[in-house]
Amino acid sequence: EQARPPTTLEGDRKSVTPGREGEEQQRGARPTNPAGPRAEPEESLAMVTRVRSAVRLALALALSVLVTQATVMPDGVALAQPPPGGGGGPGRPPPGGGRPPPGGGSFGSRVLDGLRDAGTGLATDLVGNLVGGGGPGGQGLWQGGEDERDNANPLQVIPGAPPEIQGAADLLLGSRDNVDVEKITADRPAYLLPKDERVSKAIGLNGLHAGPSAFTPEMAGMVCDSDGVSIKLDASDPEGKIWYSSDVRKNGVGGATTEVTCLWIVDFPPNIPDGTLIAVNTDSFKSETPAKLRVFSGMQTCVEDDSLYTRLQIGNERGFSRVDAVQRMISFVPTRDNSIAIQLDITQAPGDSSTEFSFELELRYGPLYKRYPPGPNTPRQPDPPPGMAVLLPPAYDEIELREDGILPGYLSLYNSNGTRTFEQMAAGNPLLEDMTGTEKGVFIINNQDFESLDGIQRIKMIEDGPIVISNNPRLRMPVAEFIDWLNGVDGNISSIDLSFNDLYGQIPESYCDLLERVPELDLSQNINLCGAVPTCMEVVEAAVLGGGGRIKSAFESSEMQKFALLWTGTSVGSPCDAIEREGRRPVESFDGEALPDGSLRATCSPLGYMAKLEDRGEIVFDSLSVDLQDFKATSCAWESAIGESRSSRNGSVLVLHFDDFYTSINGGHGLCNDFSSGHNFYNPLLNGPLMDELTVSVFNDTYKRGLDVFRASGSELPAPFVLDIDPSYKSVQLNLVKTATAGMSSVDLAGSMNWTIPQCGGTSLKYAFVEPISTLEDLTSFVAKYRNTVTGEVGRSIVVASCNATGNGTKIEDLSALESVTKIKGDLIVMNCPTLRSFAGAEKLLNVTDSVMVQMNGELKDVSGLSSLRAVGGSLVLIGNNKLRKLSGLENLRSIAGSLKIETMGQLVSLRGLAGLESVGNNVIIKSNPLLIEVGMVSLHHIGTSLVIRYNKVLGSFSGLEMLMQIGGSLDVQVNEKLSNFTGLENLLRVNGSFGVFTNKGLEKITQLQKLEHVAGSFLIASNPVLETVELPAIKSIGSPPPSSAPNRRKLLLKDDDDTKYPEDDVGDESSNHLFAIEFNENLRSLAIPESIERLPWNVLITRNPALSGFVPWDLLSKKNVVSAILTGNNYTGPIPTQDPDLCGSSTTIRYIDVSGNQGICGFVSEDCEYLNIEGEDTSFGEPCDGIEPPMCFKKELNSEETCTVLARKFDSKPTKLEFMFPTYRLQDELPKNLNASIRYRFSVGTKQGEDNVQPMTEMKDYEFVDENKTSIRYTWDITDRHMSLMNGQTYFVTVNAFDITGVSVPNITSNGTTIDSSAPKVTNAKVVLEARENGDYSVKWGGFESLSGIRRYRMTLREGKNAIDEITVPGDKTSLDGVIEASKLKNGTMFTAEVIGVSKANLTSPKVLSLAVIPIPNGKKTSSSTIAGVVVGVLIACALIGGVCAYFVLRHLRRQREKAKEEDWLRRLNSSVYTFLQGTGTQAGKLSYDEASVCLTNDDSKDSDNSKDCVFIFTDIQSSTEL
Questions:
Q1: CA atoms within 13 A on the CB side of 820
Q2: pLDDT digit string, tens, across residues 651-670
Q3: Which of 34, 631, 646, 1297 is most buried, by the most CB atoms less than 10 A from its CB?
Q4: How far apart are CA 1506 and CA 749, in angstroms?
Q5: Cβ pair 832, 855 in contact under 8 A
Q6: What pLDDT does 621 receive?
Q7: CA–CA separation, 1359 and 1369 (whole Å)
């Protein structure tokens, strides 16, 4: 394909690019027949090749036929013409100049051109393959001859082709008439199509796409592939567009997966050099599930290193989590190896396994000229030599303003460090002086020396494009003027980005007018913007920042985005009173002087350039900005060159003072840094696997990659830092870097429950390069100059360093120059002064308003000269004074407002010199002092932040801290090899941060914390190999601040609008999102936490303590707030008390327990414990516990002679219920009640005693006690809801088993069987005979009643007409009875009948069976023979008539009874058959189910069982209908 000459769209003519003909001829054409003898291929291989080649050729022919028919009209004129005026915009020369306009044409023509080229090349390749040596052995598929024309047939579509090829080609040729030429050639670019057409086109392209490929740019931007879609741009049109959505994926492209990844590799033409900025305009990016869009410089996307320049996150795991759409956002990415990579990742929310997505991405990209338009004095640049890439803008004389003064294309200026103002840029350039606007926008970005936009007001029109004036750190301008200009610019401004400049002042109300017109307005990272938010943002501000405020998800995410772009990295919301001197907030230096106007307040950069540090200044950044931008290491970086360029800084001292500090150290563990209370333990469990650290690094010939000399992280304010600049240093850098923690692997913890928008904190530090005092004469002169002779106060900081005095200078051996100084207003810094031996001479010094820093003075042995020092307003820092053994002389020091930091003091043995110190406002850090044996600060009762004791090899206890009652932050005790106990902390009541004690090799017990009541943060005791005992007898709360703590400051965004799901008291309360962990303590045997403890955090981890035995501490897990408990790898034994309502009730908070690795864990989980998920690998969980007495039957406990058995009816008529009774049982073990509180019962049902082939053993629920003493239990097995029934005639046996939670059970007891008789007694053959005599005596006989269970009794009713005159019940073994009719009932002609009903032993009643009517004849009347004869004749006739009528109705009734009985019998059989079928077994091959009376519910191996059947049985009454 590369050797094929390009074609044009003008008819079917072709043109060859100059210089390509020779290459084409050198490559040559494929020979029609290979040289040499032909090898006969195997027949099977030839057939496979023939079929495969035919299919490939058919595809090539289809493409070529389609293109030829679609692009050529009968007159040979090309339909597709370039649009008038060409394009314009970033990356292409704006139209109107003298250079050739960019090529192109409509989207349809470019698609067709690409298809034709691809099709022609493929067809050429395949035809050559078929004709030449394409098949096995080198033989083609044509029928023979030296040329395909040997087989030519003028009627064939492809002369000489085999029949299968001819058929395919003929079919394709016949489809020409179906091609809509006008529709294809008039097609519009994809981004202009309606959405349904765009989706349809993308579906087609993705359907053709298989693996990495190269389409035309328009096509490739609509294709998604995780391996990468190559987009190759042409030099004449180096722009592209990408559009992809879930609608394309839904319609058969992409498959059912739980994540989507699309990668586009954009290759720019060779004339675009590396480093060229590519403007990436994200027109739309939205998703309903977590999504991430990243743009990399270069082609690698595996690692988010310094090649990552854009990262847009929806549903972010940190920071601004609720944004679900981004619109019209522009970012800039430099090319690397002529490429950029764009990657889209869509995933489902955690726990969601759905494969449905809803997302859409639409973006445009193209390169920017560094400076456009050029001026008349800008020399026309020649074409670059071969191999050198340069993006050449048009020359000045090739550009012409339109008649209305509009500049074609855009205005751009970036990376131009020599241009300071817009007027300077426009001076002498008529194009800029006379312009009134631009077609495509304004781009002024990343110009470090650019200071003013005065003159830009001449731009009054932006026809269609953005205004991006960003990342110009010296651009200082009142924001009100800027917004007034923007409000006067007409046209369609797509977005405005003014971030990372130095705009200042109150944002005017006209901002709201501009925002209404341009919703994407970014003012972020202008630190000097201040004052109240404009009225149009007040509602959002109140929701986000208001007291206790929260935001519903119904709140438009676009409103949230607008507010974030106004608020982040600015001082909006703070008063503007301090804004002075041309809008700059005054920045005081470390010594109290206001910095000059030229000093900078530096911040982070979106493009990752290294900002320059001035002599003095301020660095600021905040957590929300870092999270939103997701800055990489080079984004927050500041450098000071020390070498040749800034030689004046050689020998200077860099001083850092921190006013505020925050970096993220907890990752996804919790909101802000609250999981570890803002303290960096450097532990992945407490701090997460990644953290942000502010570092200071030095570079020289030895440390070419830098040596870190300072690190700070977390939320605690660091002590000041000083660095003596060595002459060998070439540069000093400050960086915000990501650091991976090492050590114990992290575990899955309960995650945050709220969507949040937190502003966790910010960093503000002042820096200054100070020339130090190095001789005694200079020190004396300095003191004399700045000392108040009345008060003795020195009004400046004193910095003494590099005291190697030579020549006329006198060495500084003491501080005698301070003999009259009583106060220092600032810092006292003495460092790297090897001649200093003592502080003698400073005896009158009472107060230092800032910090006292004594560092790296190798000969300093005595600080007693500070004996009068009472207070330090900053920090006291003692580092690296290796000959100082004690701190005698500091006994009068009462308070330190900042930190006390004592590090790497090689010979320091005691801190008893600080015995008078009562309070420290910030941290106490005692670190890396190898000979320190005691603390000795016996008066210290309050520490404002954290107590850190690390790496002190011989420190044995905390003796000397007996007065300490409260630690305002965290307690951090690590790697103190000889520390054996916590003696000295007996009076400690409260730790308001986290508690971390780990890797102390000699620590044997923690039993001295007798009064400790509250630990507000996380709690970790880990990796202490000889620790045996932990006792906290007074502890009330861990990991959850007490109710009296400060209110929650987090701002929340709820997931839905239902307030009832988020009660006011619970919304946003993540104060218990902490950790209680006891881990990796090999010899820990006792963990004594009282049952009275009230609160524990969400996460409880007691793991890998192999000597920790006994019952699992379930009482801890049932405490308020506990959500997850991981108790793996210990030696716990016994059952799990899941019957305890405090652990397993619906009102408890715990949801997950893991006891894996505790082999002694046993017993079962109650079925009532539905809220709790328990895992127990490598345990006996789910098995009975050993050595526990089983429960005892109540009757045996009373020594009753009655046997313990199951009582059930012998016969029962209910086919869906089975009722039984049994005696209760009693516990016999001595376990605690919360471990084994009650007896549980289970039962099974089978067709034989002891079997459970009908109902497997199942725990009983909702059983009832028969009597008040609870000696017997009644239970009914009901299967009505299962739509099944017991089989008629089958006998079922009930087995009952009693057991406790430990799994220990008693022997089974079984019933004697219950036979199901669900049919009423049959009366088909039943007869009743009544004989009545004249004297009133009567007798009734009956027979023929039939029942499966037998007849329990009969009930006979004697009736006079319809009235019952006698009713007698007799046992079922009697079939006759005699009785007497009352005389009053005996009347002439009265008829009597007998009615008999049978009742079965299953208590079912038979239908009534009637006798024939009988008329007794009264006695004692005399009549004549004729009368008697007449009466006889009449009676006979009447009886005949009545008998006939009665017989008719009786027989009809009996017939209906028989029919109904047959119908019921059929229904019973059908029901039994269905029941058996649903069970999947129960019959033998060849039998109907009702012929076999056994049912097996669990046997899946029956001959005719088929558990894969999916059937529905419908029972309907069709008694009187004709249709079903």
A1: 13
A2: 789 999 999 999 989 876 77
A3: 631
A4: 45
A5: yes
A6: 84
A7: 15
Pairwise pLDDT comparison (95 vs 1120), residue with the higher score: 1120
pLDDT at 134: 37
Task: Report whether 750 contacts 1097 (CB < 8 A).
Answer: no
What's the pLDDT at 1270? 84
Of the candidate ranges 333-342, 418-427, 1058-1067, 1255-1264, the one whose mean pLDDT is the lowest = 1058-1067
127 near 57, Cβ under 8 Å? Answer: yes
Longest dimension (CA), the chain: 180
Show contacts of 143-146: CB within 8 Å, 24+ apart: 146/32, 146/33
d(CA 942, CA 900): 12
Q: Are 686 and 970 in contact (CB under 8 A)?
A: no
Of 348, 825, 873, 236, the closest CA to residue 589 belongs to: 825
Residues 1160-1179 as b or e (16 or more Cβ within 10 Å = b): bbbbbbbebbeebebebeeb
Cα–Cα distance for residue pair 960/934, rounded to 1 Å: 7
373: preceding bond cis by omega (within 30 degrees)? yes
Beta strands in 533-684 (DSSP E): 550-551, 571-572, 601-602, 611-612, 616-622, 637-641, 653-660
Task: Tell me which amino acid residue 1421 is.
Answer: K
Encoded tokens for 413: 């200026």
**Binning pLDDT at 50, 70 and 90, where does residue 61 land?**
very low
d(CA 292, CA 294): 6
**Residue 1045 to residue 1039: CA distance in whole angstroms:** 13
Q: Does the pLDDT at position 1128 exceed 90?
A: yes
| Interatomic CA distance for residues 887 and 885, integer angstroms | 7
Q: Which helix (DSSP H) or strand (DSSP E) does residue 1450 occupy? A: helix 1425-1479
1282-1302 average pLDDT score: 87
Alpha carbons within 13 A on the beta-carbon side of 795: 9
Which of 282-286, 313-317, 1062-1066 shows the lowest mean pLDDT across its residues?
1062-1066
Distance between CA atoms of residues 838 and 842, nearest Å? 10
468 burial level (CB within 10 Å; 0-12, 13-18, 19+): buried
* Residue 480 φ then ψ, to 5°: -65, -40
DSSP assigned state of 671: S
Four-residue CA torsion sign, 317, 320, 321, 323: negative
> Pairing state of beta strands 291-297 and 308-314?
antiparallel
Q: What is the DSSP letter of 562?
A: H
Tokens representing 284 are 């739309």
d(CA 679, CA 924): 13
Q: Which of 1106, 1114, 1128 is nearest to 1177 (CA)?
A: 1128
Backbone angles phi, psi at 1371, to 5 degrees: -60, 165
Strands (E), 1250-1400: 1255-1259, 1264-1265, 1272-1278, 1291-1300, 1309-1310, 1314-1316, 1327-1332, 1337-1343, 1351-1360, 1363-1371, 1376-1380, 1392-1400
Q: Which of 1260, 1263, 1240, 1257 is nearest to 1295 (CA)?
A: 1257
Sequence-distant (6+) residues with CB within 8 A of 1510 are none
**Average pLDDT score over the chain:** 76
Place of tokens 């800027």: 482
Lowest mean pLDDT among 473-477, 1091-1095, 1224-1228: 1224-1228
Q: Is 492 helix (H, G, I), strand (E, B) or coil?
A: strand
> What token pair was written down for 126?
């395949």
| pLDDT tier, 921 (very low <50, low <70, confident <90, very high otherwise) | very high
Provide the 10 A C-beta neighbour count for residue 352: 12
